[in-house]
Amino acid sequence: MERINFQTIEKKWQKIFATETLYNKTGKKFYCLEMFPYPSGRIHMGHVRNYTIGDVVARYKFLNGFNVLHPMGWDSFGLPAENAARSNNLSPKDWTLDNVKTMKRQLKMLGLSIDWDLEISTCDENYYKHQQELFIDFYNMGLVSRKETYVNWDPVEQSVLANEQVINGKGWRSNATVERKKLSQWFFNITKFSNDLLNGLDSLPGWPEKVKLMQKNWIGKSIGCDINFEIENSKNKLKVFTTRPDTIFGASFIAISVDHDLSKNFKDIPDFLKFKEECSKMGTTEEAIANAEKLGFKTDIVVKHPFLKNKTLPVYIANFVLMDYGNGAIFGCPAHDQRDFDFAKKYKLPIIEVVSKEGKKNKNLKEAYTGEGKLINSDFLNGLSVDQAKKTIVKKIEENKLGLKKTLYRLKDWGISRQRFWGCPIPIIYLKDGSIVPVDKSELPIKLPDDVDLNSSGNPLENHPSWKKTTCKKTGQPAIRETDTLDTFVDSSWYFLRFCSPKNKNKPFDVNDANYWMPVDQYIGGIEHAILHLLYSRFFMRAIKKCDDDMSYDEPFKNLFTQGMVCHETYKD
Ligand code: ANZ
């Protein structure tokens, strides 16, 4: 059998491929893109599979007369470089560039129809300069904010950990018990687009249904209402959010978050402090909170039931109530919510059934019943279906001024601050007078220093002797640079736009180029990016469109193909 010489094929394609068509913006276009790789060391089978699929699509379209854009680049910032550099006493840059060299050579050997002339790398200052520019544009449009939030804090590493770096409540590297700590962090205000990101999914017939469903669930639209409970012997009210107001007659307790305002009243009580410490060991992910054993602290606060005279409900502080969702407070209905059921069993609270499948009472509920049925034990709601009961009770709640209808989204603003070295510096400075301002665009890029000590604990940029010291260009005041870097998901949220004008020195991309090539006609990549990367990219397009009226599109990827993961056991063991 004749051996195929891939390098010859690759050279041939390189010659006839997209370089000539890139600047020829007439005629039919086809933008074929595969998720760009992280330069981890060597190409693996997952890459080969992904890039072969893209290669086939790109050639096919090219042979059918399309102008084809088929670029490749490197998602080259990230923690592995920092860790490898630390263990081998190298610079993250050298480690990364070395890997890029190896992997590029390997990819070229495959003879893929990639236009290497368009190559970009996110750790290159010619790339991240423009990212800093986009950050400033977003900041000026009110799409960036600074907020205090709870983070996973590794007390040994003196650093914030991502959720996936917390394993059984311990830091993945230090094995220290991770704490919940409040820190000021930068956010992209992705929640400003919650509804739009949700509705936009309907305009994507070329996406797999399962990916759209995952995004939909992640955005998590919840329709419900607030209910204000009167607190006994107090003028104050306690507001809860519920999606099941129909179960109000089954309420047997109220639970509030450890961080709720009312919880502060107990801050001097030793038992509460002990309880709080227990809770802080739980990690901050919703999953960790949901799976943790239900813990409660009984307060002396009692509220009145809004529809039953003389009935009161005890108020607990509970570990499963999140502060950053709804009002940080719930009414517990054990018969119809499993968390409440577990809690009620543990603290011996009444379990009152109010929805029944057959319309009859079930004597011994073994678990919460969350299905459809008819209302029972519920005064004026008796006999109604769940849907009817919801409508009736919300009307009543609004009429009696007990609360209002409300729509919530589970989606949270995107926390983009990382206490890491190998990432894009956040172009913000803190002035002596306390003001926080973006750096002047003329000063970009804010480059990473070459001489950094990665071996001591804490944030390397913070520890650098001089890097953070600067002056404000406008006022001449001394200033300190932000020492956090951007989450690397930011780097991959707009690279597809950079490929449309990869050599543009003045702007992240030329909007005319982008309007010709975008949206990506075929995007190909791993299913593991179904939620975050794709959602962040959809947010970026919307944010960019908000900053630039000339941008025509708000969906980045017209057709999406998600390949599975290559995980034959040979590669596992
Ligand atoms: C009473 C109730 C009865 C509830 C019932 C459910 C079932 P989704 O769909 O996710 O929006 N909840 C509200 N705020 C919460 C918070 N900060 N932390 C933890 N749980 C919270 O869920 C809404 C439901 O989650 C709400 O409806 C509330 O419990 C709980 F049979 O209210 B429900």
What does this structure look like?
The chain is an alpha+beta fold. Helices cover 31% and strands 21% of the residues. It contains 18 helices and 27 strands. The protein has a four-stranded parallel sheet with strand order 2-1-26-27. α4 packs across α5. The longest helix is centred in the N-terminal third of the chain and has 19 residues. The mean pLDDT is 91. The site of ligand ANZ has 17 residues, from β11 and β15.
Characteristics of this structure?
31% helix; alpha+beta; 27 strands; 573 residues; binds ligand ANZ; four-stranded parallel beta sheet; four-stranded antiparallel beta sheet; single chain
Can you lay out the helices and strands and say which pair or pack?
Layout: H1 6-16, H2 19-22, E1 29-34, H3 45-63, E2 67-69, E3 73-74, H4 79-88, H5 92-109, E4 120-121, H6 125-140, E5 144-154, E6 159-161, E7 166-167, E8 170-171, E9 179-188, H7 194-200, H8 209-219, E10 221-230, E11 237-242, E12 253-256, H9 270-280, H10 286-291, E13 296-304, E14 312-318, E15 329-332, H11 338-347, E16 355-356, E17 374-375, H12 386-399, E18 405-409, E19 414-415, E20 417-418, E21 428-431, E22 436-438, H13 460-463, E23 469-471, E24 478-481, E25 485-486, H14 488-491, H15 495-498, H16 511-517, E26 522-526, H17 532-547, E27 560-563, H18 569-572
Parallel strand pairs: 1-2, 1-26, 3-4, 12-14, 26-27
Antiparallel strand pairs: 5-6, 5-9, 7-8, 9-19, 10-11, 10-18, 12-15, 13-14, 16-17, 20-25, 21-22, 21-24, 23-24
Helix pairs in contact: 4-5
The protein binds ligand ANZ.
